[in-house]
Structures are given as C-alpha cells and as structure tokens.
C-alpha cells in the first residue's frame, strides 16, 4: 500500500504502489503508528496537534539478529530455548546484554538439512548510527559478536560448527518488516500510559497491531483486532 486515501476527512480506500486504487468503506492499518501517520497518510490528513503528539510516542529499540546453520553432530542433548544475560550487573535492556536463542530444529528436524540445526539469536540494538556505508559490513560483524558469545554458553564450539551465517541489523529489521526504525514498538511502560485504541481522528480509518491497545506481542495484537472488530460493530 502506498497511501491511505482520505477525502473530506474520511478514509475511502487505498492506493497500491502499482497505482491501483481499492475503494473501501473502512480502512484498517496494521502498520505501526509512525508508518501509518508519516508514510501512509499525508501530513494534512491529520490534525497537527494529534499528529505531533502521536509521533512523539517514545520508541523501543530495534534488534541485532544472527541466523545460523550449524553442524549438529554431538549435540543430541541440545534444548531449543535459551536466554543468556551476559552481565547481571548491567541493565538487561542494554544492547547485547540479554540474548534470546531459539533452535527450532531441536523440535522439528524438517527445519534444517539432515545433520544440521538452524539457530536464531537476537538482542536489542539502537537504530541510531546505522547506515549502509563503507563500514557497514564490518560493523555488522562487530555488533553480532555478543550474540555469538552468548551462544558459546550453550554450544561452546559454535564457531567451528557454522556452515551458514546471516546477520541482521536494525536496518534489515526496518526494511524487511517495514517498521519505522525497525522498532519493537512504542515504549509505553505499564502503569505509565495507555496504548491508543483503534480509533483515529479520520472517520472510517482504524488502527490495529502493536502500537495500539493492548500493546506489543502476538496475543496482544490479536486482541487489538478483536477490539477493532467490536468497534466497527457499534
Ligand atoms: C525479535 C522479536 C521477538 C519477538 N518475540 C515475541 C514472542 O516471543 N512472543 C510474542 O507474543 N511476541 C513477540 N514479539 C512481538 C510480536 O512479534 C509483535 O508484537 C507482533 O508480531 C506485531 O504484530 P503486528 O501485526 O502489530 O505488526 P507486524 O507483524 O510488524 O505487521 C505489520 C505488517 O504490515 C506490513 N506493512 C507495513 N507497511 C505496509 C504497507 N505500506 N503496505 C502493506 N503492508 C505493509 C508489514 O510488512 C508487516 O507485515 C517479538 C518481536 C520481535 C521483533
């Protein structure tokens, strides 16, 4: 979708990147609030003060990702989920400190070629300072090191086992998931604010997903869809 079409203060459909226009009585955006309000709507479609305060919502960091294919021999006792906190004296949200490890081929052998495992490791990483310049490849390698170090706690000889290594940065996350700054979502702490509901100032335009009530996470975004569906029925 290139743009949500608004006429006379009312959402009337969407225009796709190929130019096709799809008319609709209701438009529901599942993109983040930043993507919806800056990319999918024109600035003049929203009341300035509403737009300004919505876009000022604090943003949770993005991520470093490490996707690996590894040789599996000798790892018969391996389990699939691990959380490694590298330094318990540091904030767990510090980039690279808390590393989440998933090895789904432990449970489903079809997810990797015979004799191999597939691994995903990720940790929080700020979007700021990342750009695809000459130093990008080197920085990717450097910033993925904490993920490998964390993985060494689970598989000590991990570096010798790697047959495929794909590193994702905040830029990768933003590009492939089409999320503003590759963010996890709005930084609205429990008890310190509420995620906005499905309504927008534009008639017949609703929002769902992880920048709406009740918040981030698969169960929460499913609930946001239910909330929106019930709003439409009223
Ligand atoms: C690394 C990581 C680990 C996580 N782990 C967990 C977990 O263990 N448990 C849990 O519950 N949650 C977890 N989450 C959170 C959860 O994945 C998200 O909150 C949830 O998937 C968000 O769903 P969504 O539909 O709101 O947004 P998204 O999944 O981001 O969907 C929005 C969609 O809109 C599309 N889009 C954007 N712009 C356009 C456009 N212009 N035209 C067409 N399409 C567009 C995007 O491509 C995307 O597919 C995790 C998130 C991350 C990043």
Element layout with pairings:
Layout: E1 3-7, E2 10-15, E3 21-23, E4 27-29, H1 33-40, H2 48-55, E5 62-71, E6 81-85, E7 98-102, E8 116-125, H3 136-143, H4 145-152, H5 158-161, E9 162-168, H6 170-177, E10 205-207, H7 218-233
Parallel strand pairs: 4-10
Antiparallel strand pairs: 1-2, 2-3, 5-8, 5-9, 6-7, 7-8
Bound molecules: flavin-adenine dinucleotide.
Flavin-adenine dinucleotide is lined by residues 1, 30-31, 35, 40, 63, 122, 177-179, 184-185, 209-210, 216-219, 221.
How would you sum up this structure, described in words?
By secondary structure, the protein is an alpha+beta fold. The chain folds into two domains: 3-58 and 185-233, FAD/NAD(P)-binding domain (3-Layer(bba) Sandwich), CATH 3.50.50; 62-177, no CATH class. Helix content is 26%, strand content 24%. The chain contains seven helices and ten strands. The protein has helices spanning 33-40, 48-55, 136-143, 145-152, 158-161, 170-177, 218-233; strands at 3-7, 10-15, 21-23, 27-29, 62-71, 81-85, 98-102, 116-125, 162-168, 205-207. The chain has a five-stranded antiparallel β-sheet. A three-stranded antiparallel β-sheet has the order 1-2-3, with no helix packed on it. A two-stranded parallel ribbon has the order 4-10. The longest helix has 16 residues, at 218-233. The radius of gyration is 21 Å and the shape is elongated. The model has no long low-confidence stretch (mean pLDDT 97). The site of flavin-adenine dinucleotide has 19 residues, from helix 1 and helix 7. Flavin-adenine dinucleotide is lined by residues 1, 30-31, 35, 40, 63, 122, 177-179, 184-185, 209-210, 216-219, 221.
């Amino acid at each position: 979708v290139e743009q949500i079409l608004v006429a006379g203060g009312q959402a009337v459909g969407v225009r796709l990147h190929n130019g096709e226009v799809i008319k609709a009585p209701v438009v529901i955006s599942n993109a983040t609030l930043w993507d919806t309000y800056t990319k999918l709507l024109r600035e003049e479609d929203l009341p300035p003060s509403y737009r300004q305060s919505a876009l000022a919502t604090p943003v949770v960091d993005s991520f470093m990702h490490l996707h690996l294919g590894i040789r599996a021999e000798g790892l018969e006792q391996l389990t699939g989920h691990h959380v490694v906190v590298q330094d318990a004296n540091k904030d767990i949200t510090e980039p690279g400190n808390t590393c989440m490890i998933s090895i789904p081929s432990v449970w489903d052998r079809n997810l990797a070629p015979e004799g191999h495992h597939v691994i995903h490791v990720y940790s929080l990483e700020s979007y700021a300072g990342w750009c695809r310049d000459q130093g990008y490849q080197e920085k990717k390698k450097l910033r993925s090191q904490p993920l490998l170090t964390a993985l060494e706690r689970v598989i000590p000889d991990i570096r010798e086992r790697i047959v495929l290594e794909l590193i994702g940065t905040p830029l990768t996350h933003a590009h492939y998931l089409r999320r503003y700054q590759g963010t996890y979502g709005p930084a609205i702490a429990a008890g310190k604010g509420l995620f906005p509901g499905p309504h927008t100032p534009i008639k017949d335009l609703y929002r769902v997903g992880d920048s709406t009530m009740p918040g981030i996470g698969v169960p929460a975004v499913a609930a946001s869809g239910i909330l929106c569906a019930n709003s439409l029925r009223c």
